[in-house]
C-alpha cells in the first residue's frame, strides 16, 4: 500500500445510498417528496447509481419508485432498488419481497446478502449452504429478468476475519450467478484502513469480478477505508451525501469522491462534478433538514475558514500555502473569521473582504478589535454575522450608526385558550421615523414573526425598499444551557433582498430581545446596502 | 503497511491540544475559566500532555499559565506551553516571546518551527539556514533551562513532498539541539494515510528521535493519518477532544486513542481511561458550548443507536453481532430508536428498554407504530424524547393520559420601552387541578421562562413533587427554515428531579406553543415517574 499503487482504473462507480442507508440516521425522516427532490441533485453531481429505497418493505419507498418511474428523468445516474435475497427454504420467483423489487422497474437491483457465517446461523437461522443457494437463486432470477444486480455482502469484513473461506464463497457465488458488482460491506464500521487494504487485496486475488466498498464510520476511518479499498482494487464506492447514516454514519461520499479526483487524480463524476459539490451538499441538507456540519471536509462552512492570528498575515501574501486545495475546485470559499484570537491582521483582512481599506489606520483597527473582543465576551459571534460586523465597523469609521428610526417601545403577546384551541401572537411597535411617530401592530405564527411584521409595517412608508426584504433563516442558540430557559439566548438571522443575503446576530437574556436586536440590524444593514438615506 | 506491522511500543504519548489548536475552531471562544475547567478533565482521562495555549502572545493564555501554576494539580498529564522559535536575525535569550515561554513555568515547551522551505522564504522571509539556526538556538536555550522541548514541524508533509532534504534537516536539527519529540504536522490537512505512512517511514529511517503526528481533517482522514503514522513508527499523537480545531478540525484524539487501545491493543491512557471517555467528551462540550456531534465515533449520542427495522429483531438476539465494540468500553450505551422506519420490532425493543413487555400485543404495537408515524410526519421526533414516547405508549396501554390538570388558557407578554431600557416577560396560566381553579402569573427572562414559572407555581400546591423538578436544557429547531420566522418550531426540553433526567418534545407553528407542549409533557412525565396520583 503506497503512493505507487494508484489503481489503473478507467471507471470507478460512485454509488449513492443517501436515500436508503443514509435515511437510517437518527432524527432523519425523508418523505417521498424529499427523495424526489434529492435524486436530481445527486444526478446533477454525476454519481453513477442512486439507491432509492426498499420497495415492498417500506411503503413510501414503493411509492418513491412508482413516482420516479413517471416523474424522474436522470441524465447521469441509474436508479437502484435495494432488497434482500429470497427467504430461506423458499424460491426466488415466488418470493413476494423479490417480486416487489422487479415491480419497482429500477434497472439495477442491489441485494443484501449474508457473508458472515455467524449471521447466517444466528440471525438468519439457516445454514451456510442454504444462504449460498439464496444468493445464487435470487441473483440468477433477477439477472435473467434483465436487471443489473449488485450484491451487498453484509458484514463481509467481520465475516472474513472470522471465516475467510465462507466469506469468499459468498462473493464468488454472487459473481457466478451473474452479479455485476459485489460490494464488500463493513456493516459495523469497525475496520481500519490497513485491514481493509489487506482483505480487499486478498479477495482481489481470488476473483475478477468488480468489487465495491461500503464503509461505516464507527472507527472514524470510513473515508480512509473507502480509499484503501480503491487502492487495493475496488472499482465501486458506496456512501452518502454528508456522511449521513445510522450510528456514526456511512462513508462521506463527497469526501471520498473529492479525494479520488483531487488527490489520486481518478475522475469519477459524470455530471456537474466537484465544482458544484458544496452547493449540492447544502441543498441536500436543506431537504433532509439536518443542520450542516461546519467542519465537514471540503464542503463545510468552516472548511476553508481561517481564524489563527498566527497565519492571518501570511495568508494575505500566499493563500495557496495555507490550503490543501483551491476551495473553488469544490465550489467553496476561503473566509477570514473575525475573532478575539485573530487580532488586527485578521480584522484588516476581513475589512478588505468587505471593501474597507484599513491599512495604516492603527487607532481604528484597535477600537474595532476591542469592540469585537467585548462583544464576544458577552456571547456575540461575528463568524456567522458579517452584516453585524460591518455595521460595527461602519459605526467606528463614521463615529455613529445610521439613524433610520428611534424605537419608543415594543410588546409581544401570545395567547392560548382551550375553548378555541387557537394560539394567537400579536406585536405592537412604537417608533419614530424622522418627526413622524408610527404605531403598528403585526400578527404572526409566533412572537418573533409578529414583531417582524410590526417592525416592517411601521418602516415601509418611510423606507419602501423594505418591501423587498425577507427573512430567510432564523437560528436560536442558548449559550448556557445548564440553566434551562434562564440561559442567555443568541439569535442569528439571515435576510435577503431577493438578490443578496446577509446575516446578523443578537444576544440577550430574552429570546425576543435577542431577536429584536438582530431584526433591527438586518433592516438597518439592508437599508445601508441599498444606500437609503435616513429621514 | 499491514496488520502485521503493529508497532512495538511501550509508550505512545497522547498530546492534547484542545486548549490551543482546538480553540482555533470557528465559533469557539474559551475563557481562562473554561480552560481551567477542561484541563482536569483531560488529566482525568489520562493524556500525557496538555497544551494550554501561547503565553506571551495571547493575554488570556498568559493568565491561564499563571493561574494553572497556583490552582491546577495534574495527576497524569504534564502541562505544555506553545510558542514559536526565536525571531529571524535575533537571539533566543533576548527574544521576548521565548522569554514569555520560560516565564510560564510549564515543564514542557512546544515550539512551532518551519520545515517547508517555501514557508521559510515566503512567509518567514528569511533563508533556510537562518530558519535552522532559529530552531537550534531556541531548542538549545530552552533545554539548557531545564525544559522538555517538543518541536511541531509545521507544514512538514507538504514541505517533505516539495523538498524532502530541507524538511529532514529541520527534524534532525531539532533533535541534535535536544528536542525530546519532533511532531510532524499536516498543517493544511490534505494528506492521505498512504502518504503519511510512506513519509513517516522514510523519516524513521533517518533518525532515532521520537517522532509525533499532528493531523488535521481536511481530507477526512485525520484519524486514519494518525494511525498510519503510529504504525509507521511515530510514538506521539497530537489531537483535540471531539476533533475541535480550525477549518475541518484537528484529529479527534478520542477516536485515535480508542482505535489504538481497542483495535491495535496499544495502551496509551494513564488515567480513568476509555471507560470515562464519553462522559468526559460531553463534559468538555458543555464547557466549550459547541453542540456535540451525534455521529461522532465512539462517544456520539448516535454512535451505538440502531434504527434499522431490518436489524432490530436480530439485535434482540445477538447485540455483539451488530456493534464493532461493546459500547460500555467507552462509557457509551446501545440505544434503540423509535422511528417509522423501524417497525414493530424496534417499538417492542424500545418498550422493553423502558420496562414494558409488549411481546404478543399485536394490536397495541400496531396502534403505537401508527401514532409514531403520524407524529413524525408532523415534525415530532422521539429519537431524543424518550419521555414523550413513554407518555404516548402509556396512553395507548391505559387508553387515557393521566389528568393531573386541565388547562383553561395561557398568555405570555414581553414588553420593552426605550425609556427604562428594560425588557419584561410575564406569563399568566389558568388551569384546574381537580375541582380547584388556579390562576398564576410568572415572570422570567423570556416568555418560555415566564410560562415555566407560572405553570409550576399553579401546580406546586396540588403536586409538591414539582418543587424538585428543574429544566436543564432547552433546544429550539426550526423545521423549515426556508420561510424564516414562519417556520414550524420543534422544541426539545430536558428536565431533572435531581436524580434522573428526561426529555420531551413539542411541535407547533409558534415557539411558545411548542414549548408549552414540551413543558406540560415534562411535568406530567415527572409526576408519573414519581408515581403521583392525579387529584
TrEMBL record, chains A, B:
In short, the EC number is 2.3.3.21
Q: Which pathway is it part of? A: Amino-acid biosynthesis; L-isoleucine biosynthesis; 2-oxobutanoate from pyruvate: step 1/3
Q: Which UniProt keywords apply?
A: Acyltransferase, Amino-acid biosynthesis, Branched-chain amino acid biosynthesis, Isoleucine biosynthesis, Transferase
Which family does the record assign?
Belongs to the alpha-IPM synthase/homocitrate synthase family.
Q: Name residues in a coiled coil.
A: none
What is the name of the gene encoding this protein?
Answer: leuA_1
Q: Pyruvate carboxyltransferase domain location, by residue?
A: 12-278
| Any single biological process term in GO | isoleucine biosynthetic process
Q: Which organism is it from?
A: Occultella aeris
Q: Which domain of life is it from?
A: Bacteria
**Which enzyme type, at the first EC level?**
transferase
* The keyword Disulfide bond belongs to this UniProt entry's keyword annotation: no
Query: What Pfam families does UniProt report for this protein, alphabetically?
Result: HCS_D2, HMGL-like, LeuA_dimer
List, alphabetically, the PANTHER family matched: (R)-CITRAMALATE SYNTHASE, ALPHA-IPM SYNTHASE/HOMOCITRATE SYNTHASE
The protein depicted here goes by the name Citramalate synthase
What's its catalytic activity?
A: pyruvate + acetyl-CoA + H2O = (3R)-citramalate + CoA + H(+)
Q: Any idea which GO molecular function terms this record carries? A: (R)-citramalate synthase activity; 2-isopropylmalate synthase activity
Amino acid at each position: 500500500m503506497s503512493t505507487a499503487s494508484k489503481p489503473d482504473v478507467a471507471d470507478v462507480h460512485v454509488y449513492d445510498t443517501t436515500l436508503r442507508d443514509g435515511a437510517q440516521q437518527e432524527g432523519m425522516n425523508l418523505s417521498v417528496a424529499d427523495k424526489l427532490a434529492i435524486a436530481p441533485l445527486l444526478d446533477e453531481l454525476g454519481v453513477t447509481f442512486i439507491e432509492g429505497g426498499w420497495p415492498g418493505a417500506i411503503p413510501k419507498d414503493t411509492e418513491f419508485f412508482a413516482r420516479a418511474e413517471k416523474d424522474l428523468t436522470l441524465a447521469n445516474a441509474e436508479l437502484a432498488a435495494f432488497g434482500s435475497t429470497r427467504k430461506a427454504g423458499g424460491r426466488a420467483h415466488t418470493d413476494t419481497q423479490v417480486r416487489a423489487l422487479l415491480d419497482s422497474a429500477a434497472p439495477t437491483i442491489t441485494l443484501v446478502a449474508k457473508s458472515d457465517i455467524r449471521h447466517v446461523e444466528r440471525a438468519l437461522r439457516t445454514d451456510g449452504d442454504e444462504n449460498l443457494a439464496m444468493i445464487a437463486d435470487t441473483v440468477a432470477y433477477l439477472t435473467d429478468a434483465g436487471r443489473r444486480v449488485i450484491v451487498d455482502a453484509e458484514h463481509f469484513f467481520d465475516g472474513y476475519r472470522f471465516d475467510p473461506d465462507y466469506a469468499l464463497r459468498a462473493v464468488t457465488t454472487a459473481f457466478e450467478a451473474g452479479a455485476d458488482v459485489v460490494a464488500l460491506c463493513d456493516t459495523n464500521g469497525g475496520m481500519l484502513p490497513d485491514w481493509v487494504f489487506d482483505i480487499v487485496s486478498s479477495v482481489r486475488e481470488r476473483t475478477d469480478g468488480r468489487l465495491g466498498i461500503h464503509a461505516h464510520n464507527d472507527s472514524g476511518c470510513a473515508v480512509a477505508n473507502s480509499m484503501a479499498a480503491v487502492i487495493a482494487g475496488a472499482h465501486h464506492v458506496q456512501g452518502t451525501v454528508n456522511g449521513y447514516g445510522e450510528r456514526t454514519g456511512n462513508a462521506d461520499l463527497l469526501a471520498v469522491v473529492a479525494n479520488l479526483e483531487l488527490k489520486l487524480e481518478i475522475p469519477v463524476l459524470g455530471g456537474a462534478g466537484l465544482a458544484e459539490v458544496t452547493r449540492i451538499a447544502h441543498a441536500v441538507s436543506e431537504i433532509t433538514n439536518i443542520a450542516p456540519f461546519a467542519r465537514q471536509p471540503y464542503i463545510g462552512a468552516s472548511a476553508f475558514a481561517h481564524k489563527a492570528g498566527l497565519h492571518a498575515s501570511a495568508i494575505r501574501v500566499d493563500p495557496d500555502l495555507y490550503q490543501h486545495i483551491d476551495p473553488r475546485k469544490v465550489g467553496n470559499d476561503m473566509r477570514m473569521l473575525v475573532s478575539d484570537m485573530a487580532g488586527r491582521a485578521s480584522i484588516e483582512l476581513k475589512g478588505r473582504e468587505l471593501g474597507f481599506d484599513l491599512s495604516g489606520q492603527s487607532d481604528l483597527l484597535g477600537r474595532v478589535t476591542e469592540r469585537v473582543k467585548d462583544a464576544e465576551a458577552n456571547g456575540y459571534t461575528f463568524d456567522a454575522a458579517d452584516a453585524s460586523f460591518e455595521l460595527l465597523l461602519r459605526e467606528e469609521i463614521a463615529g455613529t450608526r445610521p439613524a433610520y428610526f428611534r424605537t419608543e417601545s415594543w410588546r409581544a403577546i401570545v395567547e392560548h385558550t382551550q375553548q378555541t384551541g387557537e394560539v394567537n401572537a400579536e406585536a405592537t411597535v412604537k417608533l419614530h421615523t424622522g418627526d413622524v411617530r408610527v404605531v403598528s401592530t403585526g400578527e404572526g405564527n409566533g412572537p418573533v414573526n409578529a414583531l417582524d411584521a410590526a417592525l416592517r409595517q411601521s418602516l415601509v412608508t418611510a423606507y419602501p425598499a423594505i418591501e423587498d426584504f425577507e427573512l430567510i433563516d432564523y437560528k436560536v442558540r442558548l449559550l448556557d444551557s445548564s440553566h434551562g430557559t434562564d440561559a442567555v439566548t443568541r439569535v442569528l438571522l439571515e435576510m435577503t433582498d431577493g438578490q443578496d443575503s446577509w446575516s446578523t446576530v443578537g444576544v440577550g437574556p430574552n429570546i425576543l430581545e435577542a431577536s429584536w436586536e438582530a431584526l433591527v440590524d438586518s433592516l438597518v444593514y439592508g437599508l445601508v446596502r441599498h444606500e437609503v438615506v435616513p429621514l
